[in-house]
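Problem 12. The chain below contains 189 residues. Write out its predicted structure in token notation.
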Amino acid sequence: MIGTIGTNPVGKELELAKEIVPNLKTVGLIYNPGEANSEFEAKVIKEAAAKLGITVEEQSVANSGEVLQAAEALAQKKVQAFVKIGDYATIQGFASIAKVGLKNKIPVFSVDADDINLPGTLATLGWSYYDDGVAAGQLAVKVLKGESPAKMAFLPLTKIVIRLNETTAKAIGLTIPEATLKSANEVIK
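Solution.
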């Protein structure tokens, strides 16, 4: 097997959240503990949160149909932000999280770049899918030229893309720091 590999940069997602919301103490995390990838990333984000002095309020779901109710439950617990990991249930139901965040003026952060287009998503920080595709293509070229895939290592993803939504920031009453705006790859106005 050959390809690219990378765990979602959930620690950096939390750092971005703390940069935008400096007094951040609690985040809401919705995920399906039945998915091995989700369980792993939930562990990673909890460890990163502990280092930043952030408490993770968890709400488990079995499928995307339970995401809205889970988001509403976390909003009632007064979480200060929602964060997303690589979880299939929340990928499918993420619009519900963004909707609850917007309604309750709770910042919503994601590791999937395209989530920035959903009303209510404040920021995304994730791997560059374009660069991932280029790297995978370079590996394919090596194989087509005769290199054995058995001798090739997986390429780690390295380039992170940050996207911010100022419209959402205004709607929830937040001001994104100027330095954060300047560090973004894209700012939606």
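Discussion. The beta strands are 4-5, 26-31, 55-60, 81-83, 108-110, 123-127, 155-156, 160-165, 186-188. Students who got a different answer should revisit the alignment rule from Section 12.3.
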